[in-house]
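We store sequence, tokenised fold; for instance:
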Amino acid sequence: MASHEISVEPDISAVAPLVEWIEGRCRENGLADDITFKMALILEEAVTNVINHAFADLPPPHMIRVRLDIAIERIVAEVVDNGHPFDPLARPDPELSRSIETPTGRPRHPIDAPHDRSDRVPAQQWRQSPRPRKGPALISS
């Protein structure tokens, strides 16, 4: 198993270089393009959410680390940060009586409209414990 780890600056400008790093590690280890794309997308969203939400009202230093463990049969990705934890169970239940369409009639979900990010709803994060947190993601090919 190949293990790779990188520290990421807690700034949105660090996301593009992170995606390039992820793609490079996946390709170095012979992963298919579709798996490489999925890993980059998952980790881009997770790290973007950490940058945009986890450090609100917290003094520096802010820390984000991404780790990839790549083997033939599986990939494990881990994002560790020292920001505020996110507990999806503490959020109110969604209002199911509302339309999923925006007032303009366009869908809100990025899968329904991947070319238009203006109505994008961020994915929920899998952070649940106090800092430092770890959020594993597993993709099997």
